[in-house]
Amino acid sequence: MARLLPLQFRQVRWLSTGDPGLLLRREAPQRAALLARTLGGLPADQVSALEQLADDPQVLEQKAFRGVLEELSRHWPRDVGEQVSGNADLTLRLNDALKKLGAQGVDPRLIRRLGNGLLQELHGDLTSLMDRFCGTSADDYALWLLDQKVQEAAASLSVEELVSLLHSLAHPLFGGRSAAHMSAEVLSRVRRLGSLSGPAAAKLLQIYSGTPVVSEILAAMGKPPMSLPELAVLANALAANASDSHRSLALELMKQLDALPELDTELALLCVSGVWDVLAITDSTPDPRLAGILKKLSSQVASADASQFALLASRIDPTLLPTLTSDLAAELPAPTVVKLLAALAAAPAAGTASAADSAALAQALSDAALRVAPALSFADFETAAFALAQLGLGGFLEAGDLEARLGNFPRASAQLLWAMAVHGGSDVAWALAAMQLPSLTSLSDAERALLLEALSAQAIFSKPWEGAAATLLADPSLQAAWSAQTRPKSTKSEALLRLLPEMGEKYQLEAQIGPSPWKAPVLFEDRNIILDLLPSARHPASGKTRGDVLLKHDSWAQSGYSVLTLLDSAWKNEEEEMRQRLKAQLGQLNRNELLRAANIQEELQKDLESVPVGADGINLKALKWLAQLPLPLQKVAVQKYKNTIRSSVRSPSAWLIGIIKKEETVAEEAAKAEEAKGKSSAVARRPQDGWKRSGRRLEDVKTGERLKGRVTNVYQDRVWLDAGLEKDVTFLAKDMEVKLGQVFNNLKVVKVNLKNKWVEVAPRVPKPRPAGPARRPPTGWKHKEGKPLSELQEGTEVSGQVTNILFDRVWVDIGAEKDGSFRMSSGQELKVGDTVDMKIRMVDLDKDIVMLAPKGENGGLAQVWMWIAENQRRVQVRQGRAAHKTETVETRLPAPTGPGVVVVVVVVVVVVVVVVVVVVVVVVVVVVVVVVVVVVVVVKERVGSRHIGPIEEEEEEEADRVLKGWGDETGGSIFSRLLGQ
């Protein structure tokens, strides 16, 4: 980022003017006491103390400093609307003091409230606001408010004022959080600026870097004079937007660059890179003026060492690097090119070059070495050949006329022989080198190892050695030196060893492959395939396959084996890919739950697909707030959020809520304006044909009737359908996914409200089909080739693949004649084919079962409970099977069909009614009899208790009866008559 910015944006370290440490140490106690005395005092005194200590960074570590900031935060407004009197001057003074101390992040609450105070005091002065806020106390809300002010004032500002404000908001210290430059008001103003001056154009190019607006700015630029930093910004824009239409601008940039008396190497290289990207579209060779600029820089580059050269070269676009390096190589002496190659091969991490830049640099130096090869001394030729072989870059041996050099020079080094083996020296060259082998004495261990690899590989490629070469190859000191060399080893060897037995292949570890000194890490004998584990195969500087890897693999291939390279990075990528996939799945699940909980419509969910939701994005509160808006306003708010959000925003939810509030305010103002004009302020639009349709009248619709309808509208959980009636029918679609245009059959009319013109229906939801029983494998449940159960030992650790899962019971093939089984714990998820590591918990030979348990789970009482639970489950299964058989027999009985079923049902109903009537009659008769009996008993009790007088008294009563005209009573005595009554 730093190289794309002008000089004023770079971090410049001030020159030291002496050591003030002694003075500061003497004054530290008094300064600490000065700050501590203000605790609990007035804000004015505390601000004055901070101003006095603004030049002492040690004050940030004092406890009293944090206490003062905490007390000051209570005296500033909590939001922009809160009015706090008496802080106008203190606000500006405190802001300046904190800015000098660099204490903007010590107390976030004070910074937020101080920003509110600044907005109140400087609400009308944008320039002062920018000056106060830049790099100090601008939180997200304050920055958003500044963006709004700039957008409102965009039309009335001059070009210089607008560009200056936008450049301040785009300051790197703001972290790219400002979105004012991408608003419609500002973009409209920028597109109407016309011809731009040099500084204004450079600032706009920085502001809109990486956006399509850069092309418009480049098209509107004239040919203004610019400084070197401004030219570097222009060159960077040209490199990112290379086009033939910018040719004149690139030539003007090169002209101004050539006219500058002094050039900063880094900025000048950036300018050259941008110019070349544009001119290379039509020109195959650099412009002469471009070559002149490079020549002006050659003295600076030529004096740099290898690491400095790599650092400078990394600043240049890779497209230009080969041309630039080859041009500079013409100015550099041949030994310097060799020196750079050796440094790059031995120390590829020198400088800060990226992978692409480093590869381009290596290729450029290789091309330079090819041009200077004939002029190199034999020692430099050997050094360059060895370095290029390490980098995996060939073609150098032929360019340097290797046969002629070997014929004229009496001794070849081990490094040269190794380079010949890597890049295939000719038979003549090897014959000349073999003649010089006796002179190879006093070799180091590294040289002995290289010589062994070179001679062994050549013997495989061509034919076995004879004479001095064979004697030298049989020397045990060479093998010992080669074995003692440390080589990078794969960190995934143990993981591979665990996986090999599961592959079912016959393999051999550390296999000897013919006369090759390299042993195959894994050899699949039946397939003639070698599996080579490597931490990496490419040279980090060139990006090509390293020479040692080429030599090893070529020797194996010459012996008739295919080589499969397995890099550690592949393992890491698989693990990381699995981790990312799982994280993405969990994130998507949480995202769906949040959207469902917030009642976000499906149509809006598509707009939110690229928006983070959850802990790292918009929370549930903001989503619910968004769902309360009408759908058109929801889409507008989401689109504005996507256009304005930046990665540096600390609270995306607050950002969205701020946009929602603004949209609500705009909608309310629009509604009031429409209402003032006598127009409807409804947000939802009425269909052109109205809400009614031409169809059946609602009066003709009966409850229970079945309808067919097509979905016409969906709002939250409510669905409306066109069912051929004059009004759409509706139902609540909970836990259902409904789309516009979807057709529903068998809609049952639940309710018809003629008063409100409302028809409620119920969709027919199909019941889920029960899962069928597990199928028996074609080969049966037993494995004849497996280990007998009698040979299994309880407590043995085993591993195997899952073969079947039913509910929470899992069966695992552990290599026995029958699968072992266990119960999954809650939350555990397995599928058929997964590999699990278990422990044998129990073997029941009578019932022919093997119970397993996860590793680390103890037996004992848990084993007994598992056995009891297993037997209980078996009893339940047997009972279920018996009940199933009974149901099967009953279902096999023929069921009556046709009209006879109706007759039988009617007869049964009649019989039941008759029985009920008879029972009722019997009950009534019994009640009547009981009542009669009770009455008789009562009467008897009363008659029996009367006193029976003498006969005379009875005769008097008889006389009275005669006088009253009553008839004579006959039929017995008085007692019989009494009893008759």
Describe the fold and architecture:
The chain is α+β, with helices and mostly antiparallel strands. Among the domains are: 23-121, no CATH class; 337-484, no CATH class; 493-535 and 561-574, no CATH class; 599-676; 698-762, Nucleic acid-binding proteins (OB fold (Dihydrolipoamide Acetyltransferase, E2P)), CATH 2.40.50.140; 789-888, Beta Barrel (OB fold (Dihydrolipoamide Acetyltransferase, E2P)); 916-943 and 971-981. It is 51% helix and 10% strand. It has 38 helices and 14 strands. The strands form three sheets. A five-stranded antiparallel β-sheet has the order 7-6-5-8-9, with no helix packed on it. It has a five-stranded antiparallel β-sheet with strand order 12-11-10-13-14, with no helix packed on it. Strand 13 (835-844) and strand 14 (849-854) form a beta hairpin. Helix 33 packs across helix 34. The longest helix has 46 residues, at 899-944. It is extended and about 160 Å long. It starts with 20 loop residues before the first helix and ends with a helix.
Q: What summary fits the major beta sheet?
A: 5 strands, antiparallel
Largest sheet, order of strands side by side?
7-6-5-8-9
The SS-based structural class is: alpha+beta
What integer value in Å does the Rg equal? 49 Å
Mean pLDDT: 72
* Terminal Cα span: 129 Å
Q: Strand tally, please?
A: 14
Number of helices: 38
Question: What's the overall geometry?
Answer: extended
The low-pLDDT segments are 1-28, 313-324, 348-353, 678-684, 859-865, 888-897, 943-953, 969-981
Percent in strands? 5-15%
Residue share in helix: 40-55%
